[in-house]
Write a structure and sequence with these properties.
- With 420 residues, this protein is of the alpha+beta class.
- The protein has 2 domains: 254 residues, Antithrombin, subunit I, domain 2 (Antithrombin, Chain I, domain 2), CATH 3.30.497; 135 residues, Roll (Alpha-1-antitrypsin, domain 1), CATH 2.30.39.
- 26% of the residues lie in helices and 32% in strands.
- The chain has 10 helices and 15 strands.
- The strands form 2 sheets. Strands 2, 6, 7, 8, 9, 10, 13, 14 and 15 form a 9-stranded mixed sheet that branches. Strands 4-3-5-1-12-11 form a 6-stranded mixed sheet, with helices on both faces.
- Helix 2 crosses helix 10 and helix 3 packs antiparallel against helix 5.
- The longest helix is centred in the first third of the chain and has 22 residues.
Length: 420
């Protein structure tokens, strides 16, 4: 029997995301404002968001989060499903045959054409970047191609057209090449993530990178004078003193026999942080984290007066997603049998999907007397008259969501607010 040896190259899908809430005013001058404004399309050119894509991203996000938790269930986890979905959508343009089908299944793209996916991602990105003038949300994409390798021109053009990607040919042999890529990442995350590429291996031919930077000031700030040290129950059963922020007012609030949940808005209220405090333990609650349950819960929020106490936290998180994505059904994309013939005629496969995040949540934010939430359906559950009290003094789940489109920008499980 004659055997053939796979001779080819690999490319990396790398994701750098950053969220900051909030150390200075969201209206402060951004040193990179010119380049980021250039990526923003005028409002008149922004098309409506395709709900099919948001639904796909939500399903994918919770499935991916579930797989990540299998490895990091006892640690703080904070990811951006939007960032992962965008970077893999860019890559999807280069896939063909069984590889494309496997990626479509993993990304929940069933029933959507490539043209529909690209147009929908473009509309979503542009809508999110114009979500709220009081919130800084930038989404940047780049594609770094090894000099001397022939790539499919249509693949490069599609990423430029629909993802506003910076496409650059780079001499990967130059010692300064990683620094050039890392400089772009640092600039695109306002310095919060400084390094995503350690080295460029001889087999690497391309890096596709998505970077999301979010900085939101609370619509109603927490008064630092009200922050007090309180015991926080860790997963090992011990308690540690951590600073809990404190605030009273009218909130979007939901409560079931499994959790308390609150929506804390940023800026004009289109984007909110949702905090879910399980009544049992976080591990049990995480088993119920599905897209279907999430949509049900979003409809249960209603206006209610009460008090919230929650920890401030700051963390970095990094994860390699190859194992998680393989478990979701796209393992062929990482194998020698991968078909990325729409990317290059050379044999290529995905080498790594690296995801890195930064988050900081504290008391500060813009001062606003009242905010109207956008796009949240009223609850059909009767809300009790008595004010609620929600003390987040044990592991909890949180998500940052665009209330108009329903897109989940970030989600995380915080088991130790002071782990860094």
């Amino acid at each position: 029997m004659k055997t053939t040896r796979w001779i080819g190259y690999s490319f990396a899908v790398i994701l750098a995301v950053s969220t900051l809430s909030c150390s200075t005013s969201a209206n402060s001058q951004n040193p990179n404002q010119e380049s980021q404004q250039a990526q923003t399309t005028p409002v008149s050119e922004v098309r409506p968001v395709n709900p099919k894509l948001v639904e796909a991203n939500t399903k994918f996000g919770f499935k991916l989060f579930s797989e990540i938790l299998k490895k990091d269930s006892k640690e703080n986890v904070f990811v951006s499903p939007s960032s992962v979905a965008i970077a893999l959508s860019m890559t999807y343009n280069g896939a063909n045959g069984a590889t494309r089908q496997a990626m479509a299944n993993a990304l929940q793209f069933q029933g959507m054409t490539l043209e529909e996916i690209n147009n929908s991602q473009q509309s979503l990105i542009r809508n999110l970047m114009q979500a709220d003038p009081k919130v800084k949300l930038s989404i940047a994409n780049s594609l770094w191609a090894r000099e001397g390798i022939a790539f499919n021109l249509n693949f490069l053009q599609q990423n430029e057209k629909f993802y506003d990607a910076k496409v650059k040919t780079l001499d990967f042999e130059k010692p300064t090449a990683p620094n050039e890529i890392n400089s772009w990442v640092k600039e695109s995350t306002n310095g919060k993530i400084e390094k995503i590429v350690d080295r460029l291996a001889p087999e690497h031919v391309m890096f596709l990178i998505n970077a999301i930077y979010f900085k939101g000031s609370w619509s109603n700030e927490f008064n630092k004078k009200d922050t007090e040290n309180r015991p926080f129950l860790l997963t090992n059963g011990t308690k540690k003193q951590v600073p809990l922020m404190k605030q009273q007012g009218d909130y979007r609030y939901a409560e079931t026999d499994r959790f308390q949940a609150i929506s804390l808005p940023y800026g004009d209220g289109r984007i909110s942080m949702y905090v879910f405090l399980p009544k049992s333990n976080l591990a049990e609650f995480q088993k119920s984290l599905t897209a279907q349950n999430w949509q049900t819960w979003m409809k249960q929020f209603g206006s209610r007066e009460g008090q919230i106490q929650m920890p401030r936290f700051k963390m970095d998180y990094e994860v390699e997603l190859k194992t998680a994505l393989s478990a979701l059904g796209m393992g062929v994309a990482f194998q020698n049998s991968a078909d990325f013939s729409n990317l290059s005629q050379a044999n290529t496969k995905i080498d790594q999907v690296k995801h890195k995040t930064f988050v900081e949540v504290n008391e500060e934010g813009t001062e606003a007397a009242a905010v109207t939430s956008v796009g949240i359906a009223p609850t059909s559950v009767r809300i009790p008259e008595t004010p609620f009290k929600m003390m987040v003094d044990r592991p909890f789940f949180c998500a940052i969501r665009d209330n108009k489109t329903g897109e989940i920008l970030f989600m995380g499980s915080i088991v130790n607010p002071e782990s860094n």
